[in-house]
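Intended use. Records like the one below are meant for learning the mapping from a protein sequence to its folded structure. Do not use them to infer anything beyond what is encoded.
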Amino acid sequence: MCKPDKRFSWRESGGSIQSTDLTGIEKYLGSGLIKGVGPITAKRIVTHFKLDTLDIIENDIGRLIEVPGIAKKRVKMIQTAWETQKAIKDVMLFLQGHGVSTTYAVKIYKQYDNESIETVTQNPYRLATDVYGIGFVTADAIARNLGIGPNSEFRYRAGILHVLSEAAENGHCFLPQPELIEKVVSRLALPDHRIEPEDILALTTDMALDEQLMMQGGPAQFERQFLCYAPPFFHAEQGLANRMNRLLSNPTSVELERVNRWLDRFTEKTGLQLSEQQRQAVVMAAAHRVLSLTGGPGVGKSFTCRTIVALWKAMGKTIALGSPTGRAAQRLSEMTGQEAKTIHRLLEFDPKHMKFKRDSETPIPADAVVVDEASMLDLFLANSLAKAVSPDAHLLFVGDTDQLPSVGPGAVLHDLIASGLIPVVRLSGVFRQAQASAIVSNAHRINSGQFPKLEPVSNTPRTDCLWFNVAEPEQGVQAIRDLITHLIPRLGFDPACDVQVLCPMSRGDVGTRKLNQTLQELINPPAIGKAELVRGGMTLRVGDRILQLKNDYNREVFNGDLGVITAIDVEEQEVSAQFAGREVIYDYADLNEITLAFATTIHKSQGSEYRVVILPVFMQHYMMLSRNLIYTGLTRARELVVLVGDQKAIGLAIQQVKDQERYTLLAHRLANLLAIAV
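Structure written out for the chain above:
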């Protein structure tokens, strides 16, 4: 008696694909769910096996070797992907039933594996903190689909942390308790559900007891209110203050007479003279454990830094150079003649253990550390750096405090200087060579509240700072098109690699979102043979300039890094890009980490320098316009800047001094340590 065939049959199984339609099978295989099978390979497989395709993949996958163009290596890849796809099928069906896209379903499965359904069912709000791209709003919608009530304690706790996370996006390290409660009540309210402030007040206390929230009494300016931190922010701020204090408490030993004699020989040999301020900075760098060197463009920060590095070398010190971004690190290397790294690479991040290898136990092997573009340092990166600097090392911060503060939380350079604990040299005199640049002179005019001296755009510009005077955003878009198409190439610049458009905001007609579409069509239009794909409403092409949106420690690319797409592989479902000479590969599921970067926000441009900057300034973005915003955008240009907009918007920006004070206690903690030491 014959036994029944127990093999799985897709056409008889009642599974998700029951198709006698070859086109349907082909679309399913080539949909992107199975890595290694793109539309081309799917067509070949279905052409060869026809209606038996899915049964063969399930029961006798080795036969794929029969398909022209499929080698053993690809068969193995398809087999692994097929098994994974089967394993996540139930998870994906469950999540899609609750409004979660395929892309996020894959990311959720990667995070929680076979516990995905259980985790999401028990507490969907975990998604907001565990899975990049799924914020509180999405997690809240999933929770409602699962029947979790609006007064769930899970929801309230997640809402409190979400409000603190939103505050961190605006640079705050904490929120005063009354402000936190007010924002949570507003954020969590629904048309049919009112949140009682007393409930949130009580929950903040409970969360503090559980150490989900850190609370401490505030100084006088906060009227003795409790201040509420997410735990990582509290520990980082406290740790940074203590580490800087310990570093400063370790005295140095140096003969200043020898330093001055060396300086005399150095200037005589190089034929270059140091100003009194610059000379003071060099001497202080030798005499003090920590120094902050600050000043605007053209005041000689680079030359001073180079001289300090030369002195330290003469003293026999080993030196490490770092900067928050790859571009800034490259400039620092060119300036000093010594290798410079991004701070993340200087600290040697270990993806396996998700932490930096360099810390207090294994410090950076250097007697002196230079950090350029220090205004970009956020709280967490600064704390990690401070951990890794040897107690006997020198630490030099170089930056411009008039630029925008860091994209991340905190105002580290500002707070270090404001504390009174860190020695500071402020360079102020603009050197004669720099005075010839309208970019430099206008930066200083803007910084002092004066309207810049701008030359109208013409075919034969006489300065490096131009103005395309248009009143409306729609006209601004056309003006930018004209600049990219005509003037910029005429002046010898390549729009594809020399020009960066910097916007105050991402929204609006002259925001990054719309301008990126316009600029992509101008600079990198579609062409026969040029690979492209559409993901999340965004078209990506080989040759596109892209921006990394989050710190990705596994790929070693970080928030704000710029790259160029070099390949799109629909079979492997991968996008390859070059970042500062390094190849980085993205799975399709991770493409929400990047965006087009023909236009970026001014905030995202910090630490970068471009040959040409186009700067749209319109009243459409009046809420974001400020003096330090325009100042930062202008000073990103090395050879040419073109402001596009009207006089009213530029004037408003210059008059609005938005320091946008951030909630941070770093300066207060440092000042207290100074008072205790005295």
